[in-house]
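Case 352 in the screening queue. Each case pairs one protein sequence with one candidate compound; here the compound is iron/sulfur cluster. For every case the pipeline is the same: read the inputs, emit a complex structure as tokens, and attach any notable structural observations.

Predict complex for case 352.
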Amino acid sequence: MKTITACTMDCGDACSLVVDSESKSIKGNPKHPFTNGFCCKKGSQYFNRINAKDRIVTPLMKQDGEFVPVTWDTALETIATRLDHARIKPETMLHIHGHGHRGILGMASSLFFEALGSSTTYGAICDNTGITACMRDFGQLDHNDPQDILNADRVINWGRDLTRCSIHQLALIHKARKNGTEVLTISPGGDGTPEFSDINIIIRPGTDRFLAAAVLKLYLNSGDLNPWTLTRTANWPALQGIINEHSLSELCSTCEVSTTDVKTIYEWYVDTGNVATIIGWGLQRHLFGGQSVRFINALALVSGNIGISGGGSYYNISSSRNFGSWKHLLKGNNQATAPPAANCSFRTSAQH
Ligand code: SF4
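Case 352 output:
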């Protein structure tokens, strides 16, 4: 019997999969526009993985420095006893959660620890930083349709290793290049980006906002700013002030990119035609990473590439964005008996 389901891996492609439980085969759904009939080996080998002989299916407990198999009863009782000791008050138990599988079950740990009365963190140390940056810039989590990249004249791939992050976006880039779209990649190097890039520019990790500011500085120097675009921005004078505080050579030396390469990026944005910007999932993990995403978004906006086909700034749209808050699942008995959650929040890079 064939079933259509979705891949549960922590992967932005979120493949639609056709699973044949009799022949134990898994294929990408040919009717899904983005999956387009293919998936990666992690998806197609699911059956092998769950049936693998070396898969751990018994709880292991560390005793005298060694992991030893124990029964499920022993494991669950140990966990329950320790959690009971820890949940004296919200401050004594902190639930740290991140991203990963974005299905409804991804919310299970939050529900569980909320019911136990744990405190938790605000934001996350991974995608949320860039997501928050994009929401502050554009007011909501959205970007051009992935297929719209085929309408771009040029693509600036700012830090995404598509060979590892998204085989489907890579397939679209290959198709776009066959139709004449050019690709410029900015990355710290050591990744798979040269295979699909016309130009590669190496940057010092964590300094992306300085490079974007350097390109914005060339816009300011040339006076080539679209007044219509600027009327659609908030706080442009403040951003302009920040950029004016630094010289071009200062910005270039901080990100270790030559002025020649900065001019190349500027020319790619300023030339006629539409430019799509893809922002990597990694540059936001540095200190002030949210600011890096915001400076790149500002560049996409100032160059007139937001709100048009073939342009846009692609960062991330969470596949769970329409699930709403998981808190409604606590209604009823659980909520009545659950101790109040602590109002404890930790500063994360999302807040920079
Ligand atoms: S590309 Fe692979 S890991 Fe990513 S969603 Fe598709 S099957 Fe899953």
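Case 352 observations:
- Residues 88 and 96 are 18 Å apart (CA to CA).
- The two ends are 50 Å apart (CA to CA).
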